[in-house]
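Q: Got a minute? One more chain.
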Amino acid sequence: MAAACLTIGAGGCGGSSDSAQQRFRSQARQICRDINMQLATASGAQKLSLGREEVRRLGSLTPPPELREKFRTYLANEADYYRRAEQAIARHDLAAANALNPHQDDQLTRDLGLTDCG
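A: Always. Here it is, folded:
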């Protein structure tokens, strides 16, 4: 089996091809660019709604296997950020809402290649 893998290349041996990663990243970045354009003119409440929409739309994507765990972590962290922000706003605790860091996963975002997201 190892010889066959060497002959046909890694793409035929169970790993995702670079093109699958590129397709996934392209789709995810497009979602984020679309949301970012809307965020440019959104109010506070609209921004939270758009953030949740971004998480929902990103969650509909299927990442290649080698990115799956990092992507799940990224989505969980993003969803948690929006949940905590909404809770703080519901309590009228603007200080807590402003103290939240929406860019807590900058390294994870870079690792995933989602430079337009987060």
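A: The CA atoms of residues 5 and 12 lie 7 Å apart.
Q: Perfect, thanks.
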